[in-house]
Design a protein that fits this description.
It is a single chain. By secondary structure, the protein is an alpha+beta fold. Among the domains are: 59-136, no CATH class; 142-220. It has five helices and 14 strands. Strands 8-9-13-12-11-14 form a six-stranded antiparallel beta barrel. A four-stranded antiparallel sheet has the order 1-7-3-4, with no helix packed on it. A three-stranded antiparallel sheet has the order 2-6-5, with no helix packed on it. 29% of the residues are buried.
């Protein structure tokens, strides 16, 4: 691990270590490696692991559905959509639109078309529905030494990127990890709930323990898990190694390390919640064996 605690610096050091090329720095600087090597490998590794996670971050994105509109813009970096539902003031689901086939007699309900959500038939009256989704992790990571933690200890004003670049897509960082990594003291990690590009700030679900301050060293990157970092570093070394035309033997040695690291990360994240084990839940709205559900307001009785 790099002395700063940074994911990006750690991956840069490890990629250089695996390749150990004297011409390396002259041709490929940090910016090139982060943009063209680490970022795509990070997305690739996370996509593989994401399929088996026991602890996915589920975001709730409110959308104003109207009687006149059929198409709605989706937030970026969606990995999986779980449901489109309406909630009451207490947060309980009281109505849900179900996805169906295009040729269903009652209409398709909702469907994903590119980066838009299609709702057909249109809603009967203007209402706020909540989209439940799991983010894909397809974002631009960055490290900065100029963050500003606000008084609520949940809002971080993003600083200029020292490494990487700030993602400018609206709400792109929602569901990602904000890591505060000071020179001394504790490192804190929090899930980002929302990201406002115009204000240049992110808001976390849970407050940090640290007091409000400026000049904060932080990173938006995967959680601090060594096997995950090693997966991305070895994957990056293989990708950059193809640029450098390393030998087949060298490539296979790195590949062995990659396979071991990604298995460790996958095994750990796929078995975090073992209180109920691996099973299919029968008591759900999608199971007709529990009777036809006309209203979700009394769902607890089923």
């Amino acid at each position: 691990m790099h002395s700063s605690g940074s994911f990006l610096y750690t991956c840069l050091d490890r990629i250089r270590g695996y390749l150990d090329d004297p011409d390396f720095d002259a041709k490929y600087d940090n910016d090139f490696i982060i943009r063209h090597i680490i970022t795509p490998v990070m997305v690739d590794v996370w996509s593989r692991i994401n399929m088996n996670l026991d602890n996915p971050v589920v975001l709730r994105h409110d959308m104003s559905l109207t009687t006149t509109d059929e198409y709605y813009q989706l937030p970026p970096s969606i990995g999986e959509i779980w449901r489109l539902a309406r909630r009451n003031k207490a947060g309980d689901v009281i109505e849900e639109i179900m996805p169906r086939n295009e040729f269903h007699v009652d209409g398709l309900g909702w469907a994903i078309e590119g980066n838009t959500l299609r709702v057909d038939p249109k809603v009967g009256e203007d209402r706020i529905f909540t989209l439940y989704y799991v983010p894909s992790g397809d974002i631009m990571p960055h490290y900065s030494v100029a963050g500003e933690l606000q008084g609520d200890r949940q809002t971080m004003k993003l600083g200029a990127a020292t490494l990487g670049s700030v993602d400018r897509r609206e709400n792109a960082y929602a569901g990602q990890i904000l890591r505060m990594i000071p020179d001394t003291g504790k490192v804190e990690e929090r899930v980002i709930e929302s990201h406002d590009v115009d204000l240049g700030e992110v808001v976390t679900r849970i407050p940090f323990n640290s007091a409000a301050s400026t000049g904060v060293k932080y990173e938006i990157a995967p959680t601090g898990m060594q096997s995950l970092y090693e997966s991305i570093a070895t994957g990056g070394a293989m990708k950059l190694g193809t640029y450098r035309k390393i030998t087949g033997t060298h490539f296979k040695m790195i590949q062995m390390q990659y396979r071991a690291a990604i298995k460790s990360a996958t095994d750990n994240l796929a078995n975090m919640q073992l209180r109920v084990g691996k099973h299919y839940e029968k008591k759900t709205i999608d199971n007709p064996a529990y009777g036809e559900i006309h209203s979700l307001s009394n769902w607890g009785s089923y």
